[in-house]
Amino acid sequence: MVAQKRVPGALLFLGPGHVGKATTAIALAQALNCEAPVGVNTAGPDACGTCASCRKIGSSTHPDVEIVEPEGQFIKIDQIREVSNRLSLNPLLAQRRMVVFKSAEQMNPQAANAFLKTLEEPPADTTLVLCATGRSALPETIVSRCVPVRFLPLTDGILKSLLKAHFAVRFAQGSLKPELKTQAAAWHALREELLAALHELPAGGDLAGDRLARFSAKEDMDFVLEWLETWWRDVAVLAAGGSPEALINVDKQDSAGQWARRAAADEIMKCHRHVLATRSALEVHVNGALAMEGLWLGFKHVLSEGAAVRRSA
Q: In terms of pLDDT, which residue wins out, 202 or 129?
């Protein structure tokens, strides 16, 4: 599009979160406004990254390249009106102005209706980029006026170049969440503690004291529950005869295999459902420590009951 000078007035970047949609939009803005583009005679023009325009865009200080994010839960009508008012003026510096809408699916209905008016008559010197995880949450009237560009999950190879821990690469599941870069090592250690606690079930493994505090700490609770969900999912995959290559915790294949042989399929799925129920409960502000203690007791009950049935048989 850049090489042919046929960049449309509205693009819809679709794909999972944290795979580079907004990053690509900023790179596109740089390519469209670069003062000394490179690769013009080879693969097509790209930004130099060092000129004044590229530096301003990269540091979010360019007056004609704007990023719009949800205020709280939604992108609101006042934000759309402000953008529309600015687009009615001539660009200050840019050859082509750009507005990037992060999480565009979070436009509330009033904002979406107001935005539609801008889409119907976009300024000739402007490109609007909507970044969204899926098209279904956006009105079809908006989707139909944009050129879609689909983003795939990041490959393990790309993630390995960005993350050091192999576990973090698989746990990322194609999405470079910012916290993975800073917390991968701490989460790796926490996973080892969780595995040790799980292996004490069903005979023991009650959560109390430091262990309960560690697993239910506010800063770690999301990871603990998300990881437990991936763990029981992996055990279920092996119990069903699935390939080890499908595992998220692929480096813990032996441990997952022991669990797949140790527990019946219905027990594994019950444990998985317990995790899902706990995640839902925490969305309505249930006490984290009580929720984690209840989750562990749920695991223990399911596995103890299953073991008793097998012994009696």
A: 129
Rounded CA separation 272/239 (Å): 13
What per-residue confidence (pLDDT) applies to 250?
82
- Angle (CA) 99-64-56 rounded to 5° is 110
Q: 20-30 burial string, b = 16+ CB within 10 Å, else e?
A: bbbebbbbbbb
Higher-confidence residue of 112 and 311: namely 112
Give the chain's count of helices (H) and strands (E): 13, 5
Statement to judge: residues 193 and 124 lie in one domain = no
Q: 3-state SS of the chain: helix, strand, coil percent to 5?
A: 55, 10, 35
Domain end (from 152, 172, 207): 152
Which pLDDT tens digit goes with each residue over 108-140? 999 999 999 888 887 888 999 999 998 888 999
Residues in the chain, overall count: 313
Q: What is the mean pLDDT of residues 246-272?
A: 90
Q: Which helix (H) or strand (E) holds 143?
A: helix 140-143
Please state the pTM of the whole predicted model. 0.57
- Kindly state whether residue 239 falls inside one of the protein's structural domains: yes
Give yes or no for residue 18 having a pLDDT over 60: yes
Q: HSE (CB half, 13 Å, CA atoms) of 255?
A: 17
Count of C-beta atoms within a 10 Å radius of residue 63: 12
pLDDT average, residue stretch 197-225: 83
Burial 289-309 (b: 16+ CB within 10 A, else e): eebbbbbbebbbebbeebbee
The residues, any chain, with a CB within 8 Å of residue 58's CB and separated by 6 or more, are 26, 30, 49
Indicate if 262 and 144 belong to the same structural domain.
Answer: no
Predicted local confidence at residue 280, as pLDDT = 87
Domain count for the chain, please give it: 2
Q: Which amino acid is located at 102 in the chain? A: K
CA atoms within 13 A on the CB side of 155: 3
| In a domain? residue 180 | yes
Structural domain range at position 102: 10-152
